[in-house]
Amino acid sequence: MPDFWQSSGYRLLLRNQDGQLQITDDFLRAYFTRPELAPVEESCDAERALHQSLLDDPVQTIDSARLSALADPDARENYKLMLRFRDHLVEHGTVENAYLTLFKQGVSIPPLFIDQLAHVILRGVLDDCDDPLRARAAEMMFRSQRLSLRDGAIMLADEDTVEMYAETGGFGSLGQLLQENNTPTRTIDLDVLSDDNASIYWDRSDNFDTVLDVSFARPGLDAFCRVLEGWIEHMIGAVVRIQPVQQISDERWVWHVGLDVEANTILNDLYNDVEVDEPRLARLVSLFRLEFAEPGLMLQHIAGRPVYLGMAITQENVLRIKPQNLLFNLPLMEKS
């Protein structure tokens, strides 16, 4: 199978007997090599020593005195944050458990870390995947997307990549310099994945520079449904079937989940017969119908009924999926 998303850190982890991703020293060590923690020319000796010590033994206990010895207050704060996150990972043993308990316990960590955990979990979920459209669709779960319309088709491109091209024309620091001097640069069009060219994805997977068509009845939206199914089954053990729908025409609509903040509020208003104006309704770009293979897993009064999902963009045309919504907002029976 193609190896992709090397930046996820998946190859630094081990699988335990339950198929979950077990935290390792190498995985933790990778966090301490991040630019926010790497010493710079101005770093004091205490900071350099702490950094090297954590590379040597990333699970060692660091007391407050060692942190207080750091001359740079930003470095002290960065290490406090990272060590708190490290302790959470070590305490819960697997990436999946660490991810779930973040929300169950209300642990406060930067959204970047949450996205990174989703990134590596999804890499594991897709480990036997040979479908580049499905891998590209999974990026929606941990990287915000910017939507554009092209000949009526709904196109999603990575928001950070779009902003980088807007600032530099795709030429990095040189492009930024040209932009600052009002020197025109050539326009770079991101490649739209299709059945004909989808194989280009594998070598570029860590660039996040391809576009996915998620129009209704297109392969990209179907691929996203398969990603959602795999995510739910891996994380909570429920087998579901998800398919896109064009509207919710169900007089017995009883449950819905927004895949993002925008969709959640729109679906809530529609469900409660609150008027939703056309511009806001137009931001609801996709709807889905979810059905459980085992209705007995659902709340008794809802068992057997479909769950509707929605996906919506912000006023700035940005889509920010919150994959945790599918883990905590489905109508599941509480386990005894």
What does this structure look like?
With 336 residues, the chain is of the alpha+beta class. The protein has three domains: 120 residues; 82 residues, no CATH class; 110 residues, no CATH class. Helix content is 39%, strand content 14%. The chain is built from 13 helices and eleven strands. The chain has a five-stranded mixed beta sheet. The protein has a four-stranded mixed beta sheet with strand order 7-9-10-8, with helices on both faces. A two-stranded antiparallel ribbon has the order 1-2. Helix 4 packs across helix 5, helix 5 packs across helix 6 and helix 8 crosses helix 9. The longest helix is centred in the first third of the chain and has 20 residues. The two termini are 39 Å apart. The relative contact order is 0.10.
Bin the helical content. Answer: 25-40%
* Rounded Rg: 22 Å
Compressed to H and E, one letter per element, the order equals: EEHHHHHHHEEHHEEHEEHHEEEH
Largest sheet: 5 strands, mixed
User: What's the β-strand tally?
Assistant: 11
Number of helices: 13
Mean pLDDT: 92
Q: What is the CA-CA span between the terminal residues? A: 39 Å
